[in-house]
Design brief:
alpha+beta, about 40% helix, DNA-binding, 9 helices, 6-stranded antiparallel beta sheet, Arc Repressor Mutant, subunit A, Jelly Rolls, transcription, Homeodomain-like_sf, transcription regulation, DNA-binding transcription factor activity, 11 strands
């Protein structure tokens, strides 16, 4: 269930993949079935006014937001993060998604929302950032072009081109080519051994850099500290195991490197939005 609130009207331009979602704000929007080829549920442009708030408790797909004017706050990794013009935010599936405006100026953004099953591998990977610098103009124009084509001549060849561009612009942010191979190798090793009791000192030694340099690299490329990224990878693995296995919570706790199920449960609730026991209901 989504909860939207705003004193002033919310202005949107949306293209949806099909007509299965009958929420009021999507009802009159054009359809492009080619979006389903990339498991995209809908794309759009939004002008969020003052006092805008949105809460989606169980977002069933990766969500990317790119801001081209103003700023607002997004709930990511269990904390509120500011997203300003020239930045993008990437949220994994099946977590609580919340956004709100904080100032008097409108918050203008474009977004792409995927539809993924709990068993599938989302486009969010070990190297995906949560927040970072991003030029929103190519994505903005691609979504505008798709909307205009859907509302106009609706030519299949043009729909295909706009759809491919939108997906590629998301991947440009979600799956970047790591400029520093040391980071790629580090997170590949961590993801393969999440049960290991990783420390900042060991992560830095693995990457052959000092702790402060590793912090700077991770902040610049991922928008998280090194240990926050370890937690992110652990929570994503836990979510996947809860969705695809019958393993007990105690077993999953140990598989991802926690000794105390209570600590794991509290961390999972902070990052995902609910407790592990509630994930299977």
């Amino acid at each position: 269930m989504s909860v939207l609130a705003a004193v002033e009207p919310i202005r949107t331009q949306v293209v949806r993949a099909d007509q299965s979602d009958n929420r009021e704000w999507l009802n009159e929007q054009p359809v492009c079935q080619l979006l389903t080829q990339h498991h995209i549920a809908h794309v759009g442009l939004m002008e969020a006014p003052q006092d805008f708030q949105m809460l989606r408790p169980d977002q069933s797909g990766t969500f990317m937001l790119a801001c081209y004017e103003g700023s607002g706050m997004v709930l990511a990794d269990g904390q509120w993060r500011q997203v300003s013009a020239g930045q993008a935010c990437l949220l994994p599936p099946f977590v609580t998604n919340a956004m709100k405006t904080t100032g008097r100026m409108p918050w203008r953004m474009c977004w792409v929302r995927y539809l993924e099953s709990r068993e599938s591998n989302p486009i969010v990977s070990a190297g995906s950032p949560v927040l970072g610098s991003y030029d929103p103009q190519p994505l903005f124009h691609a979504i505008s072009g798709l909307h205009a084509e859907c509302a106009g001549l609706n030519t299949p060849a043009n729909l295909h081109l706009w759809t491919e561009l939108i997906h590629s612009y998301v991947l440009r942010f979600a799956q970047p080519h790591q400029a520093d191979a040391r980071l790629w190798k580090l997170w590949d090793a961590v993801e393969k051994s999440l049960d290991h009791p990783w420390t900042l000192e060991e992560l830095a030694a693995r990457a052959c850099v000092c702790k402060e340099h590793l912090r700077r690299l991770c902040r610049d490329e991922l928008g998280r500290s090194p240990m926050q990224h370890v937690t992110f990878l652990r929570m994503q693995r836990a979510r996947h195991l809860l969705s695809t296995t019958d393993d007990k919570v105690e077993s999953i706790t140990r598989q991802i490197g926690y000794m105390n199920p209570h600590t794991f449960s509290n961390t999972f609730k902070k990052w995902i939005g609910w407790r592990p026991s509630e994930h299977r209901r």
